[in-house]
Amino acid sequence: MHLTFIKYFPLYARTRQDLFSLDETSKGLCFSGRLLEAVDLLCRKGLSADPQTYALLLQEAINRKEIKLGRRIHAQMITTGFVPHEYLRTKLVILYAKNGYMETAHQIFDRIPHRDLVSWNAMISGYVRNGLEQKGLNLYYSLRSSGLEPDQFTFASVFRACAGLALLEHGKRAHSVMIKTQMKANVVVNSALVDMYFKCSSLSDGYMVFKGSSERNVVTWTALISGYGQHGRVVEVLELFHQMIEDGFCPNHVTFLAVLSACSHGGLVDEGWKYFSSMRRDYGIRPRGEHYAAVVDMLGRAGRLDEAYEFVRKSPCEEHSVIWGALLGASRIHGNIELGKLAAKRFFKAQPENAGKYVVLSNTFAAYEMWENVAGVRGMIRSLGIKKEPAWSLIEIQGEVHTFLVGDKSHEQSEMIYEMINSLCCALAEAGYASDT
């Protein structure tokens, strides 16, 4: 979407009374929660509102995440020749960034002559929230170069970006900047910082941040508990869970997911059942598909496949693909072909348009040496023109980020890298390893 702000004389005759009436009516509708009527009125009259009215309407669209109405407001600005000042352009950046329209947001952002920290934060958080962490991180460094000082909102987004990319050195640099500016981290920043350190495998740093936090809430506790869970530290997960409750904090659905996953990896089936039952009984938390999948995984790892299947069959989330995916994984591990075939079909049925499901289905048939089925699935992929988006791998070495793609040879050391991969594959084959895909 290419944006151009044009100044021209509208076809409608404007009187001060017309504009005053439009603004007052629009504001009244907006204040009474009737945003759609306010936008309809604005567009129907074909007149440009004053900046305060536009600001109010845009803020309401942002609060409600009404991107369609927000775009109509923006379109009305353009068609009536209204040129928004910096404050309104920042509102537009926030509107588009919060709703995932990052290209449009960046176009408007680039046209703000004197950008304030709010617009920078909207762009950085927008990129990170939409899975474009590297772009968000690059923009953070541009912010630093501009001379503006980052605030707590900036650092929270930067730590999330570093967590998503597992960039420990970049995360530490940002943490150092925050300390040097003597900024007091709030609970949101500390939670993101704890999460970043654990996802970058720096457990001691993550724990030190948690211990040094003067403010804690359930999100901070959950970041710590999930962090230990990601590294298989089952004892710490359960101890911290009970410590959190003793300190007066109620767990949420994310906390329970971390606890159930820890029980699964630790083989603690009986304990896992107790925690799962406790969710609704003690805390009024309705289990989601991910919680049911964690229980299926827990039973599957323990070899209790019949029990896992019965649990899935009676689950209110039976159609949730993640549950069948967990059962499929357990069936493959224990070589239960019939249950694996059933789980694969139900897993595939849940989201047939998902390219990744075809790959999983093909790999499942290959694991059971059902080659005709493998050929059939791969033929279906070709006939439907479905392509799986390739994923990038990233690794940080001495503060420098290296990216890799399957079959990519653009890296300056690609020849040496592929030689090492071939050497490792040969060593694995000699050791008796055989891939199941």
From TrEMBL:
PROSITE patterns, A to Z: PPR (PS51375)
Domain of life: Eukaryota
Intervals holding PPR repeats: 116-150, 217-251, 252-287
Name of the molecule in the record: Pentatricopeptide repeat-containing protein At4g16470
Keywords of the record: Repeat
Keyword Repeat among UniProt keywords: yes
Gene name, Swiss-Prot/TrEMBL: LOC109505739
GO molecular function terms noted in the UniProt entry: RNA binding
Any one of the GO BP annotations: RNA modification
Lineage, top ranks: Eukaryota, Viridiplantae, Streptophyta, Embryophyta, Tracheophyta
The keyword Repeat belongs to this UniProt entry's keyword annotation: yes
Pfam families noted in UniProt: E_motif, PPR, PPR_2
InterPro entries per UniProt: E_motif, PPR_At4g14850-like_plant, PPR_rpt, TPR-like_helical_dom_sf
PANTHER family per the UniProt record, alphabetical: PENTATRICOPEPTIDE REPEAT-CONTAINING PROTEIN
